[in-house]
Amino acid sequence: MTKDWKTRTKLVHEGIRRSQYGEMAEAIFLTQGFAYDSAEAAEARFIKAGEDEFIYARYGNPTTRMFEDRIAALEGTEDAFATASGMAAVNGALVSMLKAGDHVVSARALFGSCLYILEEVLGRFGVRVTFVDGADLAQWEKAVIPGTKAVFFESMSNPTLELVDIRAVSAIAHSVGATVIVDNVFATPVFSRAVEQGADVVVYSTTKHIDGQGRALGGVICGTRDFIRKVAEPYMKHTGGSMSPFTAWMHLNGLATLDLRCRAMADSAARIAEALEGHPNVAKVIYPGLASHPQHALAMAQMGSGGTLVSFEVAGGKDAAFRFLNALTIASISNNLGDAKTIATHPATTTHQRLPQEMKDALGISPGLIRLSVGLEDTDDLIADLTQALAAA
After folding, report:
1. What is the pLDDT of residues 327-360, one digit of tens each?
2. Among 225, 165, 221, which residue's Cα sits nearest to residue 198?
3. Rounded CA gap, 224 and 97, in Å?
4. Alpha carbon 377 to chain centroid distance?
5. Are 370 and 346 in contact (CB under 8 A)?
6. CA 303 vs CA 169, 187, 339, 362: distances in Å
7. What residues in the chain have per-residue pLDDT under 50?
8. What is the CATH number of domain 7-256?
9. What is the CATH number of domain 260-392?
10. How far is it between the farthest Cα atoms of the chain?
């Protein structure tokens, strides 16, 4: 495909495969298997399938392949493998390349399920994991040693929006030959420049901004063709973590409007953060797009945006936070993000509930903390809703 297309053009046209009917909308190939013209053709395909030859839906599918081609073109990687969920992508990217005795260095601020994979799953099978403060480059330099196989981190942490310097950590990792795996969900593919900044593998929960409507679970692993087809794909197709064709079709349609949606959400998030900053019932506002954020300069250099999420601490702790949540009339209380609808989450009692209290304290997940995923509603309406809910708190 044309390599000098701009983002919005890629999001509409990249990776299209049309059947003999010349359909305009991407086709959904809802099939488990594929027929062959002869026994010899079946044998040949199992020996080596061509680019547009498929064997079984768990291995690949024309609709899923369109989605993989489009997201790889957007992310700037050679290839991609679509998965059943975001956690299937994280698990696949890590487990497919690691074995007993390998060493991984990871940022400590992670989603609970990511911590489970690193601590429980990898630990159970003999992989050594060292955790560091993701924002502290000195800790990365000390922890990454000769023989380290991979480093893993969220480019922007959930829910406290702490950034990891992708370029600097990648340089540290590459100095010992380690693979850099980045969970880039909060940055979104629209604001991501992770590959340009040194990431080798980028994973997304496509459940979030890519779907954009809260409809279906999905994920994707983006990387070099060798990593995707020789490392990730064999593991994913044999363990059953591939994306369904129907989900791929929905997420293809989500990609078409991704740039427009993310930029509108980020613009609203910036205005909301400014409105919340200094509010008497808000103890703290965390938004990388604000000049007051300690990593504002890094956010602008790394993403060029503050992103679509705002976290803030309601003064008065859990009780006040609950009163605030219960008073909302537009924003919904849920634990998803990246939706067209604005979503408010109380991480301490939901998404990060199972973390020990000392870890919550260390990560800044306080009883009053709210994570707001900004949707596509009118910004003035959202600010008015947040303001009246804060008054009720």
Report:
1. 999 999 999 999 999 999 999 999 888 888 888 8
2. 165
3. 13
4. 22
5. yes
6. 16, 7, 20, 26
7. 1-2
8. 3.40.640.10
9. 3.90.1150.10
10. 75
